[in-house]
Each structure stands twice: as structure tokens, then as C-alpha cells.
Write a structure and sequence with these properties.
Largest sheet: 3 strands, antiparallel
Number of helices: 2
Strand order of the largest sheet: 2-1-3
Order of helices and strands: EEHHE
Strand content: 15-25%
Structural class: alpha+beta
Helix content: 10-25%
Shape: globular
Number of domains: 1
Number of strands: 3
Radius of gyration: 17 Å
């Protein structure tokens, strides 16, 4: 899959105060008018987002716990020096989200 996969983390929302994760997949425009109906046992639901702005930082390599925290910090520093420094909203329930793409190529013996 090369389409973006969005993973949002909600600290403390899981069992025993662990983090909970929400995985969201992008539905291409051609399917948005009549989206496919998922199997009930998958416990999936569709979610439409209102238009909004998102700050993004791009980095290469694999998304791992150790580097996404560093990259999120770099994004925060970058935003602190911009006109958008104080324009964040606390309306969301997520601490942060990461969007990943799977390469069409597979690494062997990793």
C-alpha cells in the first residue's frame, strides 16, 4: 500500500493507562461518494474531516518511536519561530499523529 496511513496516539486512553492508537486510511476521491461497506467484525467506521490546517514535517527512513519523538520536537521548535506559533488548538483528542507511506519496494533480510 502506498496510500497514506494516519496513526494518532491518545496517551492514557488504553487499558491500564497505556496509550491508545487510532489508524485511519485515506479513501480515494472516486470512492468517497459511495464508500465500500466494511465487514462488521472489522469494527471500522468512516470519518469525514472538516477542512483544517495541519503542520507537517517530512523525514526519511522508517518511523520508529525514537525518531518520531525527535521529529515532533523539531516540528514544535520550527513552529515556535513562525507566525503560527500560537495558533494551535486543543480541540483534538490526540497528542500527535504520524502519516506513513509504505514503499512499493520491499527490503530483504531486514
Amino acid at each position: 500500500m502506498t496510500a497514506p496511513v494516519l496513526t494518532s496516539i491518545v496517551p492514557g486512553a488504553g487499558p491500564l493507562h497505556s496509550s491508545a492508537y487510532f489508524i485511519q486510511l485515506y479513501l480515494p476521491v472516486k470512492f468517497q461518494a459511495t464508500p465500500p461497506i466494511p465487514l462488521p467484525e472489522l469494527n471500522l467506521r468512516s470519518d469525514a474531516w472538516a477542512s483544517h490546517c495541519i503542520a507537517v514535517r517530512k523525514f526519511s527512513g522508517f518511523a520508529r518511536d525514537k525518531n518520531i519523538v525527535k521529529e515532533a520536537d523539531k516540528l514544535a521548535v520550527s513552529l515556535s519561530r513562525s507566525p503560527w506559533a500560537n495558533s494551535t488548538s486543543s480541540e483534538g483528542n490526540y497528542a500527535y499523529s504520524i502519516v506513513q507511506y509504505n514503499s512499493p519496494f520491499r527490503l530483504m533480510d531486514v
